[in-house]
Design goal:
heterodimer, A: about 220 residues, alpha/beta, 4-stranded parallel beta sheet, 7 strands, B: alpha/beta, 8 strands, about 40% helix, globular
């Protein structure tokens, strides 16, 4: 899932300074699951902002709505009618959700309430970890299902750097060394010979380096009228 | 540069000649200044001249901005020393690295050490973006491709042939997973490394075990391995490396001996303690050199005495490695 975290209240307040009536829009998908921007968080944030702005003396009116999926036009289109009442939209969706709203409602000010962090999973209650960087050319078959691009601090493709010690990355003792994990997994699978093969320089065109990415599936496109 | 004769050598550097002729090689290290002051390089060069076969120029060491290794290397060439320019994958992509390699060759540099690079979070610009377009192993492949095939990484031919470098790489016998380390060295040899410089060795038994595995794989016959040594400056420095530096192991023996060196000297006598540490550090390091020399597969030493270049000549002399060979 896409994992996000709420921005500090002070930062959100500052963004809303010039607005008096704001619609807080949550999203029912990834950010609900990672407890950052679902219906519950929308409710909590909206009341916190109501109180905080009232204390500041100007008071911002906040309404709340959570759509099932903020990153698809068909789920946000029903908001259109309501939007005339608001100066701004505060999105508690991920960066995609914010942009979907901004793109669909170009006349409206759309503000981000979250920082979108990464694609990952919860590894224990209250802890999420990154797993994929969407490089666009998956090599998980070569590395035992553990991604060195997302999980090695230096994106090494041919083994650990000199800073790996006791299973941890040199950058943080909280971070597992991806290559230690890969080594252990490939050992368990009896596939160490795969790790002896040299991985040549990666073709980064499929990643962000190739420019903004787009997928076109002709088999799914509707015929032109 | 193909018009330059290398007499059958890959690059014809002094380091390559010394190693090829079977001499026990000695390399040193010089940290470029955090300024544009060329005089710093000249002073340090004077301390190393004649004591080592070639000198590493660190590349933004520990992710701190310093004079570039290539520029510092050129200053070294002018002083009559042979540079090994370090090149990390942290700060440059494959375009910048190849461009710099062309320039380095044009400026008379013949050795390059291919490194991953410390993470920028350790340095003075922790907010910087890192690159890692290629890893150190792929950089070795690129340098070899430039030299042996005369081709850029993209496959395009270099008119008149490519730049010729004697290719170095690093190995850390003290990093984990330990079992992977000899194989990683094997991959570097296969990729095209001509020589290896290891991380500082303060755990001889582990290094011995590492070298045994390296020799069992026959790697010492494919690539020249220089054991990394360095004099300890104080017991505090030894403790810091033991407890704080990722990927380093310092046996307690070293800490104890450095502590023992100042036993009986009062803390207020800073000069006395520093002198005692200096002597003990050099003595310990000479012992290390003698120990690693006896390990099968070790073709030389790499002395890392950053900010203590004065120590290098006494170390090399004390280890009986002077004068350095002159190879035509």
């Amino acid at each position: 899932m896409i994992v996000a975290e709420q921005k500090p209240l002070a930062e959100i307040k500052e963004m809303l300074e010039d607005y008096r009536k704001v619609l807080v829009v949550g999203c029912g998908t990834c950010v609900t699951v990672c407890l950052a921007g679902g219906e519950k968080e929308v409710g909590i944030l909206a009341s916190a902002l109501r109180m905080a702005t009232r204390l500041d003396g100007h008071g911002v009116a906040m309404d709340e709505v959570t759509v099932q999926r903020q990153c698809e036009w068909e789920y946000i289109d029903p908001l259109r009618e309501r939007l005339t009442d608001y100066d701004a939209i505060l999105s508690l969706g991920c960066g995609v959700g914010v942009q979907t709203l901004a793109e669909r409602f170009p006349g409206k000010r759309v503000l981000p309430g979250l920082n979108t962090k990464f694609m990952g999973l919860p590894t224990e209650q209250g802890v999420w970890e990154e797993r994929c960087q969407a490089c666009g050319d998956c090599i998980l078959d070569l590395t035992g299902g553990i991604c060195p691009i997302a999980r090695c601090s230096k994106q090494l493709l041919n083994g650990p750097c000199g800073g790996s010690q006791n299973g941890k990355c040199e950058v943080s003792k909280e971070t597992s060394c991806a290559w230690q994990l890969i080594w252990e997994r490939m050992t368990a699978l009896g596939m160490l010979d795969r790790l002896m093969q040299i991985q040549p320089p990666k073709d980064w065109r499929t990643s962000r380096d190739g420019g903004p990415r787009r997928i076109v599936r002709d088999d799914l496109r509707l015929p032109e009228e | 540069m193909s018009n330059i004769s290398t007499n059958g050598y890959k690059a014809g550097s002094n380091l390559e000649r010394v190693l090829t002729k079977g001499y026990f090689a000695v390399t040193g290290e010089l940290g470029p200044p955090k300024s544009q002051d060329a005089e710093v390089i000249r002073k340090k060069a004077a301390l190393l001249k004649g004591a080592v076969d070639a000198v590493n120029l660190t590349d933004n060491q520990t992710a701190i901005v310093r004079m570039s290794s290539i520029a510092a290397g050129v200053l070294l060439v002018r002083e009559g020393l042979e540079p090994i320019i370090q090149m990390t994958c942290r700060d440059r992509n494959r375009l910048a690295m190849q461009a710099d390699l062309l320039g380095a060759c044009a400026l008379g540099i013949k050795n390059v050490l291919c490194l991953t690079g410390d993470h920028q979070s350790f340095g003075n610009h922790p907010f910087a973006k890192n690159v890692h377009d290629v890893d150190s192993l792929q950089l070795i492949q690129i340098v070899k491709g430039l030299r042996d095939e005369g081709k850029f990484q993209c496959g395009e031919e270099i008119k008149g042939g490519g730049p010729r470098f004697f290719i170095g790489a690093a190995a850390n016998p003290f990093g984990d997973p330990f079992e992977f380390r000899p194989y990683r060295l094997a991959k570097k040899a296969t990729a095209g490394a001509d020589f290896i410089q290891t991380q500082l060795i303060y755990d001889i038994p582990r290094f011995r075990e590492f070298m045994k595995r390296v020799v069992d794989l026959g790697l010492h016959e494919k690539v020249k391995i220089l054991a990394g040594v360095g004099p300890l400056k104080s017991s505090g420095a030894a403790k810091y490396m033991r407890d704080q530096v990722p990927g380093m192991i310092v046996a307690d023996e070293y800490v104890n001996r450095m502590e023992g060196a100042v036993a009986g000297i009062p803390k207020e006598d800073k000069k006395g303690r520093a002198a005692a540490w200096r002597d003990a550090g050099i003595k310990l390091c000479i012992e290390q050199i003698q120990q690693v020399r006896e390990i099968e597969g070790v073709a030389g030493i790499h002395i890392m005495a950053i900010e203590w270049e004065e120590a290098v000549r006494p170390l090399v002399e004390g280890a009986g490695l002077l004068p350095r060979p002159v190879v035509d």
